[in-house]
Amino acid sequence: MLSDDTYIARRLHLLGEWDAALAVLGPDAEPELRAEIAVERWFFRIEAHEEAEKAVAALDPSSPTAHLLTARLAYSRLLFRRYPRPDDRAVAEAGYRAAVEGGDEKLRGWAEFHWAVLLDNIDEDPAAADPHYETALRIAKASGDEFLESYIIRHIAPRKEPAERIAMLRRSLHLRAALGARPQTVAAQALLALNLPEDDPERAELIRTFRPAAEELHIGWLLSDD
After folding, report:
1. Rounded to an integer, what distance in angstroms lies between the CA atom of residue 25 and that of residue 18?
2. Whole-structure pTM value
3. Which residues touch 174 (CB under 8 Å, ≥6 apart)?
4. For residue 211, which of 179, 194, 189 has the smallest C-alpha distance?
5. 170 exposure class (CB count in 10 Å sphere: 0-12, 13-18, 19+)
6. Mind listing the pLDDT tens digit for each residue in 23-43?
7. Each residue of 154-179: pLDDT tens digit?
8. CB of 70 closer than 8 Å to CB of 95
């Protein structure tokens, strides 16, 4: 059974209240949960990188979770061009590979997805990314992990024809909203808006909705014009 603090921290994490979630966790709380929240805060807010690294360093370095989170930190440094290190590309792929090989089925699905994104966004090699997306999606559907599914289809949707692309982006948005994952829902609203015609009323409504939420959650990259 989850402790009250763990339950509250996980709910706050879903809401994008990362500072509050970390504050709830006591010194004896699950280190993997603390590290996951700290890494997620860094990714969405691009702040407290050192704290995220310390939280990951507190884990058993041979654990699949430590491999996955270490890789995610390296990937995000490359993606956002913040504090990049010469070995980040190699560290990211090695971490994802180790997580795939050593993790349980659920973690393996997430590691396959993140590996695909590394190949897609950093290497700009969609052909190499596709088998990892396919494996991740197969695991997500087999295990009923709709959160993971929402991530995968969000990333593969831009390659589809317009009608299918919009349908996939809407499904990603609806899955995230149903799960109460606020930062991810806001990100899905932003991407759907970007893919709708400029004169579409839905686009205008999505922009009116997601921008104040992104400001409240301090997700600066959702507000950038780049």
Report:
1. 11
2. 0.95
3. none
4. 189
5. middle
6. 999 777 899 999 999 999 999
7. 999 999 999 999 999 999 999 999 99
8. yes
